[in-house]
Amino acid sequence: MSAIETAGLTRPEAAGSAPNGPRHRAGGGSAPRTHRLPPSARRETTFTSRATVTALLGLSACYFLFPLWWLLVSATKPFGEQFSGSGLWFDGFDLFGNIARLGAQDGGIFWRWMLNSLLYCGTGALLGTAFSALAGYALATFDFPGRGAVFGLVLAAVLVPKVLFTLPLYLMFSGAGLIDNPLAVLLPSAVSPFGVYLARVFAAQSIPEEVLEAGRLDGAGELRIFRSLGVRMMLPALVTIFLFQFVEIWNNYLLPAMVLGDDRLQPVTVGLVGWNASHVAVPPPLVVIGSLVSIVPLLIAFLALQRFWRAGMTAGAVK
């Protein structure tokens, strides 16, 4: 055999494996063929999927935004016409006059309710965020006996609805003499099992062990390391915990309604429900206008902190 022929055997064509022919495995048999869709079919499938997802998202957005739209339209109508005409489009505009009537009702107690809600939500959310950060940081960075059991209890507490604790808390506060006391609302607000869980997950992901060791080698104490390094690295999660706590306390109705009998101590949610129950003493349009004003702080909080909130919501999604 010539050198040219011998060299030719080293090519795939001479070895019986032509580029367009069937390829053979080492153990015999041909590899399975993959059937690919043509580009036009792939484009059509992609367009159909995107259109379906977009339609579902649009329906969901309409479902959730429809009550807010009706509330906005009704609150801007002239006073007394909130439940007349079309509730889906504007028919006159007297929002500022309606807000003035809202503030004049019962000596301006509505603004006292708003101030109470801001006090309860702001203080409770700050305390809940601080305690959640401390607990989550400790569970993520310290190795101590029973750490897994403690974290398991936290997860179990997340699954228990808080409404189940309302009656035991009422009995406890009644025995402690805290009925008609703001502490009856603030103390339960300082505990957030979900906040501890989120802080623990985010701290385990975002705080490298090398950074903590470097701080200890520099002579910094654990509290200073947490304050100077841990809090800054956990900031997106802490903002998310704060927002969740703020909204949860703001929407809480049952516990404040049971422990706060004094009208001047009640939050805005309890006050508006009381107005709605007294149709004779309070005109029903004031409840609609007050409901619109009561959601403004929530919108401001979300718009101001949405950048941190979106970052914190993805905590733990990517390891």
Overview of this structure, please?
- The chain is globular.
- The chain has helices spanning 3-8, 39-76, 95-104, 109-141, 147-159, 166-176, 183-189, 193-206, 209-217, 222-233, 235-251, 254-259, 268-277, 284-294, 296-313.
- By secondary structure, the chain is mainly α.
- It is built from 15 helices and no strands.
- α4 (109-141) runs parallel beside α7 (183-189), α8 packs antiparallel against α11 and α13 runs antiparallel to α14 (284-294).
- Helix content is 67%, strand content 0%.
- Residues 1-31 and 312-319 have low confidence and may be disordered.
Write the layout of secondary structure elements.
Elements: H1 3-8, H2 39-76, H3 95-104, H4 109-141, H5 147-159, H6 166-176, H7 183-189, H8 193-206, H9 209-217, H10 222-233, H11 235-251, H12 254-259, H13 268-277, H14 284-294, H15 296-313
Brief account:
The chain is an all-alpha fold and 319 residues long. Helix content is 67%, strand content 0%.
The pLDDT mean sits at: 82
N/C terminus separation: 60 Å
**What composes the largest sheet?**
none
Q: Percent helix among the residues?
A: 55-70%
Number of strands: 0
Number of helices: 15
Quaternary organisation? single chain
SSE succession: HHHHHHHHHHHHHHH
Range of strand content:
under 5%
Unreliable residue runs: 1-31, 312-319
Q: Tell me, what's the shape?
A: globular
Gyration radius, in Å: 31 Å
Structural class by SSE content: mainly alpha
Which keywords apply here?
319 residues, mainly alpha, 0% strand, disordered C terminus, 67% helix
